[in-house]
Design a protein that fits this description.
TIM Barrel; globular
Length: 238
């Protein structure tokens, strides 16, 4: 079954809205998500620490019992954090420092040598590595040549088109997933996935191993409760 990793950035955003206020408790939220059935915790610390702080990552590593997935652009500070924390998975995302949220995958052909060095470094820390990628089958050969373990398909375009034409929405993703499987790469997916579009994506992507979901899940939890929401998302993946 496809694993659900819950991105808790938005919980940190709410906490940070009150300065040094400790509510909601990020660590307790992570514990509860795991207790409710979440199979991983994802965080994406950014240089300005506007939601997840570097210290949060250190503290989460000490208490997460499933799998900690740390996303980010491999700047020197980010790599130093990963070297210290040693998360189970690192997802490389090429976002600019001022990006509100991730908005593109890697140009793996252009940055192939750079990514190869970064992937090798991260693997030396014991991390599984995933590269954030747009749904383009032609990118798979270059991605595989970096030595990455997995790719994570950037699903914003799928989510945008899904309400009007789900067949067209999923087509490039299915083709890229098939190419990834053929190349021996593992497959993750994430961005703008929700209770409406998740089940179809999981059904249509061969080799899908993990989805990372944050914004929609946390927004749904405001109405449905966190425990119920985690279970509802897991149900979409069955």
């Amino acid at each position: 079954m496809v694993k659900l990793s819950v991105n808790i950035n938005k919980i940190a955003t709410l906490r940070n809205a009150r300065g040094l206020h400790a509510r909601p408790d990020l660590l307790q939220a992570a514990r509860d998500i795991e207790r409710f059935g979440g199979e991983g915790i994802t965080v994406h610390p950014r240089p300005d620490e506007r939601h997840i702080r570097y210290q949060d990552v250190r503290e989460l590593k000490a208490i997460v019992t499933t799998e900690l997935n740390v996303e980010g652009n491999p700047t020197p500070d980010f790599l130093a954090l990963v070297r210290e924390v040693r998360p189970e998975q690192v997802t490389l995302v090429p976002d600019a420092p001022d990006a509100i949220t991730s908005n593109a995958g890697w140009d793996v052909a252009k940055h192939q040598a750079y990514l190869r060095d970064v992937v090798a470094e991260l693997k030396s820390y014991g991390a599984r590595v995933s590269i954030f990628l747009d749904p383009e089958p032609g990118l798979i050969a270059a991605a595989a040549s970096t030595g990455t373990d997995r790719i994570e398909l950037y699903t914003e375009a799928y989510a945008r088109l899904y309400p009007t034409d789900r067949l067209a929405a999923v087509r490039p993703y299915r083709a890229t997933a098939e190419a990834a499987v053929a190349a021996g790469l593992g497959l993750n997916a994430g961005h703008d996935l929700d209770l409406e579009n998740l089940a179809y994506l999981a059904q249509e992507l061969p080799g899908l191993q993990e989805v990372s979901i944050g914004h929609a899940l946390i927004a749904d939890a405001l109405y449905l409760g966190l425990e119920n929401t985690v279970q509802l998302y897991k149900r979409q993946l069955r």
